[in-house]
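Q: I'm writing up a methods section and want to include an example of the input and output format. Could you take the sequence below and give the corresponding predicted structure tokens, formatted cleanly so I can copy it straight into the document?
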Amino acid sequence: MRGYKLHPYEQIKWEGESFSPKDLEPFMWIDSCGVSREVLRQVEAHFGIHFPSKQEQAEIEASSRYHEENGQVRIILRLIEVRPVEEELILLEQDLSIIWTPERLFTHRSSDSRVFQDLVRRLKSNPELGDSTMRLLLSLLGQVVDTDADNIELISQHIHRLSMAIRQAEFSEREKIILAVQTLQEYLIRIREGLFDIQRVLSLLIRSDRLTDSPRESVRVLLKDVSSLIDHTSFSFQRLESIQNTILSLINLEQNRIIKIFTVITVAFMPPTLIASIYGMNFRFMPELEWQWGYLFAWLLIVGSSVLTLWYFRWKRWL
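A: Here is the clean output for your methods example:
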């Protein structure tokens, strides 16, 4: 549990038995990260608020993601963070509960996030971003959007590396690229769903009577940013589909080449097989059986028919 004062900037962290809800009263921003349900109940009872349950966080209706009641605004967002690990990307996801009141901003999440680390650094360098609880809320929403933009940029860089890797990839490595493409597609879907959640929240927030003209303009700017990021995810998804189609085309070409080789071998051995079958017949009257050069003649026919067939394929440019 952390409490933040913005003027002057001050941060206090409580752990274990040292915590008391009364200690949070002087702070404008109260942030709980991975605390027990018992501690949350104490905070809820002391300040008259209610953090969403896990069932409420799982609901996708707009009314569940944004709700105004008794002078409070309750928001549920999805925090998504893409991290590079060696040559791959991993996606970390958690729900963020936000409760805004004119006096304080409450946030709750299960684990630490880059969103809050970057927001705290911004507030340290520019405390005016948190001179009111509404501006602090908009700063938090803006940081979530900025983090999603960073996530999309990381995925775009990885897509570019995959696109370049196709040219040098061996046949056996293309399966790994296809699996990597599928993983990035799933990441983009999750980010896109999170952006839609933010878009719905901002669309409802901009119609709220609690906003003055200046914050409302900030929300409009955020909405435009979210719309552009959604378009960017669509573009990235199309790039991944293009890479996937390219790999599948290369695999089909490779398979066709292999099938063509086997077809040529099969056709090239058909005339020798026919000749060997003819001279393998058990008829009494076969003049070549008594011929001194019959064995050599049969071999010349077998080899000559194969060479002639291969030459014909080459002449037709089928090889």
